[in-house]
From TrEMBL:
InterPro entries: AAA+_ATPase, ABC1_TM_dom, ABC1_TM_sf, ABC_transporter-like_ATP-bd, ABC_transporter-like_CS, ABC_transptr_CydD, P-loop_NTPase, Sigma_54_int_dom_ATP-bd_1
Signal sequence annotation: none
Transmembrane annotation, as ranges: 23-47, 67-84, 151-167, 173-193, 250-278
KW Disulfide bond (keyword) present: no
Domain of life: Bacteria
Compartments (UniProt record): Cell membrane
Protein name: ATP-binding cassette, subfamily C, CydD
SUPFAM superfamilies per the UniProt record, alphabetical: ABC transporter transmembrane region, P-loop containing nucleoside triphosphate hydrolases
UniProt topology in membrane: Multi-pass membrane protein
Residue intervals of the ABC transmembrane type-1 domain: 27-321
Amino acid sequence: MTAATDSPTPRQRLARCLAPQRWWLRGALLLALGGAVLLVAQSWLLAALFSRWLLAWQGEAAPTLPAPWWLAALATCLVLRPLLHAGREALSRRASRNARAALRLELLERLGQLGPLRRRFGSDGALGAQVLEQVDALDGYVSRYQVQSRLAVLVPLLLGVAIALHSRLAAALMLMTAPLVPLFMVLVGRAAAGASRRQLDTQARLGGHFLDLVRGMGTLQRLGAAAQASRRIAAASEAYRERTMGVLRLAFLSSAVLEFFSALAIALVALYLGLGLLGVLPWAKGEVPVSYPSALFILLLAPEFYAPLRQLGADYHARAEAEGAMRELAPLLESRPWRPADRVALADTAAPPRLACRNLAVAGDAGRRRLAPLDLDLAPGERLLVQGESGSGKSSLLEALLGFAPYEGSLAVDGHELAELEREAWQRRLGYLGQQPPVLRGSVADNLRLSAPEAGDSELVAVLDQVELWPLLAARQGLATLLGERGRGLSGGQLQRLALAQLLLREAPLWLFDEATAHLDLDAARRLNGLIERLSRGRSVILVSHEADGLEWVDRRLVLGTAALRQERRKEEWREEMREEMPSCQS
């Protein structure tokens, strides 16, 4: 697994996420611009209407009712503008939903391709927070900021042209003061961006920490450490609250600064127009440079001239939050999970495969060895116990067999190289059980049907009876017995037996066990090993375990040593040193 050398920036990743949604966003932009055009027409109609009423009130014109078309045009503007705004919001939300759903699907596919290697990117709690919380952090950026960033340029230009037709000086004043708003938006937004990134990181770590404590609540209660864990959660929650308030303070500060400068600019324009109507301008005393209808038209448009800029400032933190989220997701998105080439179609068969490993080695991050070169033959139906010290490569061997880890050397399945096989077809012939059984919240039947969706109730009862779990469940609610988070309601040994029932439903000819009894007491471990012995007859088995109690029935025992692995690492370090010294020697 390697990272891309030309890693894109968070902004480039956001652009890629939005590329498929460009038509929705363009439609939202066009609707917003249509609303701006209607705003100009509405302001002109209102200014002309109030001007006519003012002249009639002063007796300079006969009081007459506006023409029907006039009122119809004004009513059309008043009705269409909210409709266009609602349409813009609907299209923006649609684009946001689509973009977040596509990104979440990509992350889930990447996690599925990584398999057990996902542990390198954090705990399940932290990964869950990334897939849920940090993907949702893109909502404001897509649904608000994207369109608003364009409106902040186009709408002021449109309104500036309309205002310039009535007063060039008023238009110039607005265009000169407009840059102040984005200037202070950037200055304050930089601090908000840093705070948002730190907040997302804290949120992910807090989610992972909380999930770990919830999973280990039974152990904490037995050790009498539940109160201590509760205090740690309270302290972490308080720290998270303080950081959240800090981000909100920056967001409110940004909005306050933008509102202040916008109000100051509008007041400056209003002062010019008011003094002009009174004829007391220093450079035009006794003159009215802007008539009353035009002055009213400009004042109606002045707040709307700055409104897109103010709204962009309010939404600027959404961009900072989205970039921070993409920065946190970058390691997972940049991962390149290894997978077989899918060149050889593997026939579905119930016969156990023959495995042949020649000089098989697995490399980890930075090219360091995780499994020293290994020669191994596994005959069909043979059951093998793999042991060794921590770090000797036991789990790495299983990851290579599962098709998730790249390997060196040869790993042949029935004469075909594993790197050439279709991974999905190969994995259908595998049954895997680790330290944590794959049990979800729901009924026993729902969990069993994760392995065999089409299995009937009679088949489920049969496999539960085989793993000696049906008498216990029959005394409760049978197949409808509900399990809590991570199988709460059953003991550790019972959960592993339920996982064995899932393996039986898969009917896989090769079973892989990775420390399946690590968290069980001695009696439960012996009972589970006895079940594995009875149920695995006729299948190939590779069983990784530190302990050999209850495993006397295996056909062969393989011990992986760390000495060979350390020797391989020293060889790699020596080769790297030689490569670095070669240029100097040649010179």
